[in-house]
Amino acid sequence: MNHAVNVRFAPSPTGALHIGSLRTVLYNYLLAKKKGGRFILRIEDTDQKRFVPGAEQYIMESLQWLGIIPDEGPEQGGPSVPYKQSERLAIYQQYIQLLLDAGHAYYAFDTPEEIEEMRKRLKEAKIASPQYNSISREWMKNQFTLPPEQVKEWMDGGKSYVIRLNVPHKECIRFHDVVRGWVKVDTAVLDDKVLMKSDGIPTYHFASVIDDYLMQITHVIRGEEWLPSTPIHVLLYRCLGWAEQMPQFVHLPLLLSPNGTGKLSKRHADQYGFPAFPITWNTPALIVEKGFREEGYLPEALLNFLALLGWNPGTEQEVFTTKELINAFSLERLGKSGVKFDIAKANWFNQQHIKKQDPTIWADYFITEATKEGIACSEQNAIQICALVKDRVTFPKDFWLEGSFFFVAPNSYDDDTMVKKWNVQTKAVLIDFTQKLSNLTEWNHKNIRQFLQESIVAHDTSVGGIMPLLRLALTGKTAGPDLMDTIVLLGKDKVHTRLTVFLISRS
Ligand code: GLU
Questions:
Q1: Can you tell me whether residue 336 is helix, strand or coil?
Q2: Is 16:289 a contact under the CB 8 Å cutoff?
């Protein structure tokens, strides 16, 4: 393998991918692509209790939609197959034995009740965060406290046990984090973490360190919530004799709720009415959670938005294609503090990316929507309409919402505008304009504008007086794209008919 940069995204299939995980996967991907390295997808499914059917497929489909295709992974294969931890159990057995043999790990036979009892006792003794550690383990049932014959007898007799990390007493663990700088942790605050559970399945800590080493991961880029686990991982590297191969740690600051209070959660997403997940997630309880894909966000726009939540390019540029993000990305420009999640900004990025798209893509979309309504629309006409309304569009569905009036005549008129703008003069202009439409031989901006202008002057009114009424009569709306462009595109016949209908409705 031997690439300069190998990164991994290591989700646990416990449900839908949270928006924060999307940013994590994106930064991993950007770094790998920027450095010509490998982006690995590893499924961390060792916690059987939290396993959710369908979650793994969901993760793959989400990445596919975003265009983030792993170089190695369960579907792609690669030199480190298998990429699902539940299929790598024999590998972990081999390495746990090394730790046991070297005395860095030990057997512990305590029942959950006994551990609970120990914690209770420590709490009563005013120890704030009780741990199973170098002090408390002295009173527990483990390899350090039991005679070897007893250990053997229990093991031979099939008594349930776990394997714990032998965290040294009072040592300072130091490691460097790309975002945080040097981090120091006293082992006194660490737990002798369980590495291997009683069913012979490794815990996250153990499996992920083994795999990061075997997969030659150079950068562990993950959310800040994993920072407290990192000293355990650092110790494991040391105990396994792999300190030299330890990856660089990059702990990303939290995404915060829209008002900046606390970590962004699904509850905030519900509260502010935006999706929390990349694609729709049908929960095992049959609840449908909406996704960014189904809500009409473009994958490139979502990635662009996420990229800038915690990273900045050091320039004024905001709109990036994924290719441009790859070129611009660097770990040095990651921010240190939490970033507020502002959905209005995501919508803005969607608008910007929609504007950049080839109009024929939206024309096809427009035609599909028109066809659903039983309306025939040529590609050329759809392209013209989409080009006209595209500045008013945030989501693809808006093309039809904004442009359907070209096919569907208004059936009611806004009262407010009528009260404000309808008077003797404006009425006279519209009657005049309608009657003389047929004299306009060349249907173009210049002629229509001139003609309207003459009418306006003749009846002593103003552009501001007539335009809102004209828009209402022709489109049924109070706002829309450029009115002259709209009139030209509607064509003489439709304009004439709609104005006539409007005037009749007023008489
Ligand atoms: N399996 C962990 C998760 O669910 C991975 C954490 C890490 O990247 O080390 O997020």
A1: coil
A2: yes
Q: Ligand 1 center to residue 192 CA distance, Å?
A: 20
Q: What is the mean pLDDT of residues 292-301?
A: 98
- Cβ(211) – ligand 1 distance below 6 Å: no
Q: How far apart are CA 182 and CA 341, in angstroms?
A: 28
- DSSP state string for 206-271: HHHHHHHHHTT--EEEEEGGGGGGHHHHHHHHHHTT-GGGPPEEEEEPPEEPTTSSSB--HHHHHH
CA distance 244 to 229: 19
Pocket of ligand 1 contains residue 15 by CB under 6 Å: no
Query: Taking the model in full, what pTM does it have?
Result: 0.93
| 415-506 carries CATH number 3.40.1190.10 | no
Nearest to 390 by CA among 437, 416, 352, 432: 352
The Cα 204–Cα 228 span in angstroms is: 13
- Which option is the CATH number for 266-354: 3.40.1410.10, 2.60.40.1530, 3.30.300.20, 1.10.1160.10? 1.10.1160.10
Helices (H) and strands (E) in the chain, counts: 20, 13
What is the rounded distance in angstroms from the CA atom of residue 407 to the CA atom of residue 172? 73
Identify residue 217 by its one-letter amino acid code.
Answer: I
Q: Is the CB of 44 under 6 A from ligand 1?
A: yes
- All residues at 6 or more sequence positions from 398 whose CB lies less than 8 Å from its CB, including other chains: 389, 392
Cα(196) to ligand 1 centroid in Å equals 17
> In this structure, are residues 239 and 104 in contact, taking their beta carbons and an 8 Å threshold?
yes
Q: How far is the CA of 170 from the centre of ligand 1 (A)?
A: 27
Q: Is the CB of 24 under 6 A from ligand 1?
A: no
Residue 140 predicted with pLDDT over 90: yes
Average pLDDT value for residue range 296-323:
98
Using the predicted structure, report yes or no on whether residue 1 has a pLDDT greater than 80: no
Percent of the chain with pLDDT strictly greater than 70: 99
User: Fold for domain 6-72+204-254?
Assistant: Rossmann fold (3.40.50)
Cα→Cα distances 95→68, 85, 191, 505, Å: 32, 14, 20, 84
Radius of gyration of the chain (CA): 32
| Six token digits for residue 448 | 């229509």
Per-residue pLDDT at 9 exceeds 60:
yes
Mean pLDDT taken over the chain:
96
Whether 477 is a known active-site residue: answer: no
Question: What is the residue with the minimal CA distance to atom 6 of ligand 1?
Answer: 10
Looking at domain 90-196, what is its CATH homologous superfamily? Glutamyl-tRNA Synthetase; Domain 3 (3.90.800.10)
* Distance set, CA 445 to CA 424, 432, 472, 486, 491 (Å): 26, 18, 19, 10, 11
Per-residue model confidence (pLDDT) at position 3? 54
Please check the confidence at residue 2 and state whether its pLDDT lies above 60: no
